[in-house]
Amino acid sequence: MSKSAERNLLKKEFFCNNCGDLLEFYDSTDKRHNLRYCSSECWLNSRKVDFACQFCGRVIRLAKCLTINKKFCSRECYGKVRKGKKLSEEHRRKIGEANKNPSAETRRKMSKRMIKDWQNPERRKKLIESLNIRPTRIVSKIIDVIHSNKLPFKYVGDGKFVIITKKRTYIPDFVHVSKKQVIECNGDYWHNYEKDNAKTKGYRSIGWRVLNLTGSEINELDNRNLAKIISAFESGKNRLLRKENYK
After folding, report:
1. What pTM, to 2 d.p., does this model score?
2. How do residues 142-166 score in pLDDT, each as one tens digit?
3. Could you give the CA distance from residue 106 to residue 85 in angstroms, rounded to a whole number?
4. CA distances from 199 to 11, 120, 182, 245 (A)
5. What is the pLDDT of residue 230?
């Protein structure tokens, strides 16, 4: 008997446990892999079950492990159910304790989720609206300087314009879009050097030029000298940007 004939004798048939298709296999293959499905897609589908949302009634297919203690199909449905209801004191206490000292894994997941939300234009718009960002005192002073001197910068600190880098999404204070220039007003109390430096590097990595003005500099200089600094930055005269020139 030839080798091909011997090999054909080892052929067997089986039905896929998910789709029911009839397939052929060799006996040795079945011993190694214990075949029950025709493809990885059928194997994944066999692990899914129908899940019905308790609010809207929508039925979706989910992995069985994801349906444990799950009641709603989306955050919107959960929010509509919880609307108007108050949390118990015990529930509030648990939430407060969890938020005080989140684990490294929790912080990583929160950061990943926030980055994903900021990359979605619709979700980003809702987040910005919820923040209700208003100009600070130093930002208001720069707005007055720009308007009174008709400088080509636009205030976008309210989130109407964002700059997306490779790692983060930033909301600049002022931009000159055609020249890819950014002005950042960094308050002395709320800002720190490391974060501001990382933001500057992020802007520069995608071709934007940055002028960082600290809160103390904005408060010390009058509007005329601030206008000179911003005008020098816009025209590219970097040697005129040193603060000591305007004392």
Report:
1. 0.53
2. 999 999 999 999 999 888 888 888 7
3. 26
4. 64, 20, 11, 26
5. 92
Q: What is the mean pLDDT of the chain?
A: 80
Q: What is the rounded CA–CA span in Å between residue 178 and residue 47? A: 53
Domain parsing of the chain, residue ranges: 3-46, 137-246
Of 171, 233, 175, the closest CA to residue 199 belongs to 171
Token pair recorded at residue 174: 């002022």
What are all long-range contacts of 127-134, with beta carbons under 8 Å and residues at least 24 apart? 128/158, 128/159, 128/171, 129/159, 131/159, 133/157, 133/158, 133/159, 133/171, 134/158
Token output for 17: 């446990």
Q: Is 2 helix (H, G, I), strand (E, B) or coil?
A: coil
Cα–Cα distances in angstroms (integers) from residue 116 to residues 75, 93, 105, in the given order? 16, 29, 17
Cα separation, 145 vs 139, in Å, equals 10
Q: Partners of 15 in the beta sheet?
A: 22
Beta carbons within 10 angstroms of residue 137's beta carbon: 11
Q: Which of 23, 28, 32 is nearest to 6 (CA)?
A: 28
**Per-residue confidence (pLDDT) for residue 35, from 0 to 100:** 65
Most confident of 6-10, 104-108, 124-128, 147-151: 147-151
State which amino acid sits at residue 131. Answer: L
Q: For residue 164, which phi and psi values (nearest 5 degrees)?
A: -100, 115
- Written out in words, the top-level CATH class of the domain with range 137-246 is alpha beta
**For residue 20, how many other CB atoms are within 10 A of its CB?**
9
Nearest in space to 175 (alpha carbons), one of 159, 161, 158: 161
**CA–CA separation, 201 and 208 (whole Å):** 9
